[in-house]
Amino acid sequence: MQSLKKTPRLCLSPFRLGRYINRSVFLATQILPSVDNQHRKDFGPTVSPERLLLGPGPSNADPAVLKALSQPPIGHLDPFYVDLMSEVQELLRYAWQTSNRLTLPMSGTGSAAMEATLANVVEPEDTVLVAIKGYFGHRLADMAGRYKANVETIHKEWGNAFSLQEIEDALKKHTPAVLAIVHAETSTGVCQPMDGIGDLCRKYNCLLLVDTVTSLGGVPLYLDEWKIDLAYSCSQKGLSCPPGLGPFSMNERAENKMSNRKDKVPNWYLDVSLLNKYWGSDRVYHHTAPVNMNFGIREALRLLAEEGLEVSWGRHRTNAKSLWNSLENIGLELHVKEELRLPTLTTVKIPEGLDGKAFTKHLLNNFGVEIGGGLGDLAGKVWRIGLMGYNSTSENVDKIINIFETELPKFR
Amino acid sequence: MQSLKKTPRLCLSPFRLGRYINRSVFLATQILPSVDNQHRKDFGPTVSPERLLLGPGPSNADPAVLKALSQPPIGHLDPFYVDLMSEVQELLRYAWQTSNRLTLPMSGTGSAAMEATLANVVEPEDTVLVAIKGYFGHRLADMAGRYKANVETIHKEWGNAFSLQEIEDALKKHTPAVLAIVHAETSTGVCQPMDGIGDLCRKYNCLLLVDTVTSLGGVPLYLDEWKIDLAYSCSQKGLSCPPGLGPFSMNERAENKMSNRKDKVPNWYLDVSLLNKYWGSDRVYHHTAPVNMNFGIREALRLLAEEGLEVSWGRHRTNAKSLWNSLENIGLELHVKEELRLPTLTTVKIPEGLDGKAFTKHLLNNFGVEIGGGLGDLAGKVWRIGLMGYNSTSENVDKIINIFETELPKFR
């Protein structure tokens, strides 16, 4: 079907009507403007290519999750759906190791959940201290500024983590209302050691807000034990679900700050005081939930609980170690020192003089394998290889290493 | 699997490991806190019940859409996905009858797209005039207030529409920067006549913002012809896709207002100036797109283009008229006068003395059929019957009428 001129008024469309012909009618009772067909394109059915997603995410979804996702939708206040919501919350609590009542998936991607953590607790003039050691720290700072926070930052080179001393010094200096830090920096492949940060935040009377986008499900993570007050994540990495939901959790300390706000939360869609009435026992309609995505994440979280966190964490670590060894064995250098490396995402230095972008393109086009390039400070300097959730297998390690071994020499 | 006490340190989970056993390992190199299993529940696989969704939405999705939705995800910067984004935009332009460049699905539900229309153009102290004739007008007013607008409202009883004179009087009185009005009020079943409102907004130099949540795909709608500057909708009604995406469109007049803002858009996730760099030719990463939902909406919009707008609108009108006649034939009264009735959503008065809620519950539990109750001013007074997208068929009209005929007498 090409772009065509306007069709005559009230005229039956001349195009393929197929299955609809029997129920088609003229709008005989209304005088309407002509329909403009310039944007009416004749695209074929929606068929996506096969990909093995070994980049920074999305990762491949578990086939059982895709099956759950494709069930016919039901109402967002259907008793079955309301039960499912509670199950999703409970399984999320397990995955995050928290008993926070306010644990739920936001109806948007991980970035929406990130914004929700700030939007709900930050009031104008609050100091928000962001510990930046990669791309997503900058995003937190940008978002906090939009909520009129007084944003302070501390910085670490991209590929390193903060020491407890550095964090304490900054807390002492800035006395923030919120410290925001990324646990698993997807842009650098660094896992920030969390021991002791929660205690410091209690000592300096601030909330601890943690990005767990690339750790949830794949890397040891204990919200309550680590005294994390606010956390967010995504569905498409360690959970083996497609992107589209943003797990969110807040404890009572954070809830108290939210409850004491002078004004309404300046973001209606992400307002947890409203969402609480839908996810809590009241079940008051807020927005029409993305029910199918929630079918998917329930199944994803269920499979994680079935496997068990220790087993999943161990699987991620074993496969990552095998990847690290193999990459070094073929002469590549890793960007992050071993004790700070994320099991879910590995940054590999692009060898001097090699066109990293051409190589990733070659992998995608010829093998259907996606790996990521660098972001921000690391653009053009590293590749990012993800082994997350369903994709963290020894078979995938072998596959990517074999491809590197045979294909990389062609680019040197 | 019941809630159990904490497992010993570094111990392999004692639960069903099944498919994972071969790749499981101990985290032998790390000393970690114990994993708490109190929230580790042994839920069964995710299986949703069969429902015929004849309420205010979600409506049933086309099976072809569910098939598209369940394909394995691909990267949000994959060349295939980038092409798909452009196709979704083009098909959305057709569905909305607009050539607006900034036409795209927000990565959230319809309420997120609603918020996006306000968040991007409203600056503090701007007057936003909301014409309220139902629940969603109130929501617009609440949201506008959160963006520090000076919110003015005009009201009409729930079940009626505004006249051009009433709108002109209010524009003259309040000289707003934005007039927000709902085209298809899902809470009342009223279709607001749009002729002339766009011209008035140009005359009084304000932007026209229109809620098309329950009209897109099912009811005649011409964004450009009607001089609508900002519009939003949802995926789960006239488009026959599950909920989870919020179609959004803004024209150059609205874009100019956004470009002249003094401050950044106070909502990062919905910031169209950032989203434009991802959806426009730059393809700069903003957030990880909900790729599977976009597979779904592409298929939904493709099917709508294949059917053709005139045919779809005619189908909705014919089936709605048949529903209206049949409901009146069995002695029920409709809430809205015929010339203002929405073909996609019909409000039926609950007969005096009848327990409307018990009846809807009976339909859901015994027939798997969902219809809606009243919201806000109409709570307890009406039922809401939707015939939207894939569900607007004569078979569904017959089915719901038959059920009403046999079951309603049991509740009188």
From TrEMBL, chains A, B:
<feature type="binding site">
    <location>
        <position position="384"/>
    </location>
    <ligand>
        <name>substrate</name>
    </ligand>
</feature>
<dbReference type="InterPro" id="IPR015424">
    <property type="entry name" value="PyrdxlP-dep_Trfase"/>
</dbReference>
<keyword id="KW-0663">Pyridoxal phosphate</keyword>
<dbReference type="GO" id="GO:0008453">
    <property type="term" value="F:alanine-glyoxylate transaminase activity"/>
</dbReference>
<dbReference type="GO" id="GO:0004760">
    <property type="term" value="F:L-serine-pyruvate transaminase activity"/>
</dbReference>
<dbReference type="GO" id="GO:0019265">
    <property type="term" value="P:glycine biosynthetic process, by transamination of glyoxylate"/>
</dbReference>
<keyword id="KW-0032">Aminotransferase</keyword>
<comment type="similarity">
    <text>Belongs to the class-V pyridoxal-phosphate-dependent aminotransferase family.</text>
</comment>
<protein>
    <submittedName>
        <fullName>Alanine-glyoxylate aminotransferase apoenzyme</fullName>
        <ecNumber>2.6.1.44</ecNumber>
    </submittedName>
</protein>
<dbReference type="InterPro" id="IPR024169">
    <property type="entry name" value="SP_NH2Trfase/AEP_transaminase"/>
</dbReference>
<dbReference type="InterPro" id="IPR000192">
    <property type="entry name" value="Aminotrans_V_dom"/>
</dbReference>
<keyword id="KW-0808">Transferase</keyword>
<dbReference type="InterPro" id="IPR015422">
    <property type="entry name" value="PyrdxlP-dep_Trfase_small"/>
</dbReference>
<feature type="domain" description="Aminotransferase class V">
    <location>
        <begin position="83"/>
        <end position="399"/>
    </location>
</feature>
<dbReference type="InterPro" id="IPR015421">
    <property type="entry name" value="PyrdxlP-dep_Trfase_major"/>
</dbReference>
<dbReference type="InterPro" id="IPR020578">
    <property type="entry name" value="Aminotrans_V_PyrdxlP_BS"/>
</dbReference>
<dbReference type="Pfam" id="PF00266">
    <property type="entry name" value="Aminotran_5"/>
</dbReference>
<feature type="modified residue" description="N6-(pyridoxal phosphate)lysine">
    <location>
        <position position="237"/>
    </location>
</feature>
